[in-house]
Design brief:
27% of the residues lie in helices and 13% in strands. By secondary structure, the chain is of the alpha/beta class.
Length: 164
């Protein structure tokens, strides 16, 4: 369907990988198993669809887990609690990746950083773009109603884009 921008094979798989986000062997998979799944799923998506394929990584810290598996771009996420080991402003060039990188998720509520500051950091670090979490969610990290006008103004100022 042309309305699909990209396929996200799996979102934040690190939380189910033993030794990364999970320390419960019975509720985890090994990194090798996760990589095999992502590689196979990516190949299937590429065979069946024309859109690019990615994985939503919980942080830039774990991008190595999904590198070299045929993905078209990487999309790590950022939240305040990751700042100490995966700073938002860290240049993408330092990530040593083989594909473009967008910031696939960041909070639009309950963050110490103002949305404009986050967007400035995304641009300054060299990300190909950034997506706030989320438009329709009602969780504690979301306030799209407040974020939307900030996004629109930022885009107009920084990219010359006037959103409808």
């Amino acid at each position: 369907d042309p309305r699909v921008l990209a396929w996200d094979v799996i979102n934040e798989p690190e939380w189910s990988v033993f030794g990364l986000g999970s320390w419960k062997p019975a509720q985890s998979v090994a990194p090798k198993e996760l990589r095999a799944f992502v590689r196979e799923a990516t190949a299937i998506f590429h065979a069946e669809a024309t859109q690019p394929v990615t994985v939503g990584s919980a942080s830039t810290r774990w991008l190595e887990l999904v590198q070299g598996l045929g993905l078209d771009f990487y999309q790590p996420h950022w939240y305040d609690h990751f700042e100490s080991f995966a700073p938002l402003a860290r240049p993408v060039a330092e990530l040593d990746v083989d594909r473009p990188v967008i910031l696939g998720e960041f909070p639009t509520k309950n963050t110490k950083k103002a949305l404009g500051t986050i967007l400035d950091a995304v641009k300054g670090a060299g990300y190909g773009g950034g997506f706030g979490w989320a438009m329709l969610s009602t969780d504690t990290a979301t306030d799209w109603d407040a974020a939307e006008p900030v996004y629109r103004a930022w885009l107009e100022r920084n990219a010359g884009i006037v959103a409808p």
